[in-house]
What we know:
Blueprint: E1 3-11, E2 21-25, E3 29-36, H1 41-55, H2 63-83, E4 91-92, E5 94-101, E6 106-113, E7 117-122, E8 125-128, H3 135-142, H4 147-151, E9 172-176, E10 183-187, H5 189-192, H6 197-206, H7 210-223, E11 230-239, H8 249-256, H9 279-286, H10 288-319, E12 322-327, E13 330-335, E14 347-355, H11 364-369, E15 371-373, H12 376-395, H13 414-418
Helix pairs in contact: 1-2, 6-7, 8-9
Bound molecules: magnesium ion (MG).
Amino acid sequence: MTVLRGGSASDVGRVRTVNQDSVFVSATLFAVADGMGGHAGGEVASAAAISILERSQGSVGTKEGLVEALVMANEEILEMSSSDASLAGMGTTMVAASLVGTEENDVLVLANVGDSRGYHFHGGRLDQITKDHSLAAELLREGSITEAEAAHHPQRHVITRALGIPGEVNVDLFDVELSLGDRVLLCSDGLSNEVDSEEIIRVLSTITDPHEAAEDLVRRANANGGADNISVVIIDALVARERDDEPTRAHVAVIAEPAAKPSLDPEPADSEKPEKVGWFARRKKMGVPRLLTFRVIGFFLLVVGVIAAGWYFVNWYATSSYYVTSSGTQIVIYQGRPGGVLWIQPKLVEVTPTSTTQILPIRQPALKTGVNEPSLSAAKNYVSNLANEYSQSVTTPNASTSTTIPSSMPRISIHHLVS
Ligand code: MG
């Protein structure tokens, strides 16, 4: 399947006072019409042709429907010019591009009447798809004049086919095989007469947004003289069949532009159908996967690092301390924090020979909740001090202070306690 995105620009130029060109852009149908005829005729003819094409959108998904739309435009313009003297003799060129076929097997078809042009930009090359229906172009094709002579031929503006001319309209059709990142340029002769191929290639290679590229081409045509109305439609192939040759950098840049996705279902039915270019494939074409991968890996490592650091800190905090508490009638020492920390419960490391009856009653509430010590030896020392404190209070009941109470223990008056 193919997904397209179009952009356009149209300008009156620097010489004409009225813009008789009309353009049309949708998700699957694109067109440029260059009107001609005195008074309001030209602009009416081009607008009518575009309007009929737009109304025919439902049927231009086939080549027959596309041709029929141009035949209808021819008849309607002819009818309008016949019934209104002020529009007599009006006509218009038309170059239209329509996505034709099924989603699984579609192709961009260019339909052309007149000297507006369709170009295919692929791999840095710009190929004119349409053939000009002009006197000079026909003389060139016959070999009667050279390309240089055709470019300056006095009758180069005389066209040999148009919509609005009596008789059967003869529509040229061209299939354009699009690759991912290709561009198609539709334009009126106001561009092709003013801007050469090299300059067009430079613009198509460097300006990725189709609307901005179209505006830049119009600006260049005006800078080069702007002798005629200038209209440009640029169509980008955002999704298309892949070919073996790699897209140019410009193509890749084109794909990188965000775009409103046309409402085409990207699901192929089976593997027999043309290869679908999915999101990852398009990102790969853009060179994004490497960047994306590094970012994802970097983010993943950061998350892992934060989790590991958090885990290490919790473990360190939960196990780096000891506390003394009572268990039944016995004084015990645990490694850890009273009550535990998260998933880490305190671990019993020693049941001391000191019982709860061998310490002062005032020490027992603190022991029940647990007394923290920075190390196992400090915890043992604390228990030992408790026992000494108790034995001293028993053997020297008149002692007013205890010199064996460590600094970490709250100092209390033994004399007061045992009196
Ligand atoms: Mg023109």
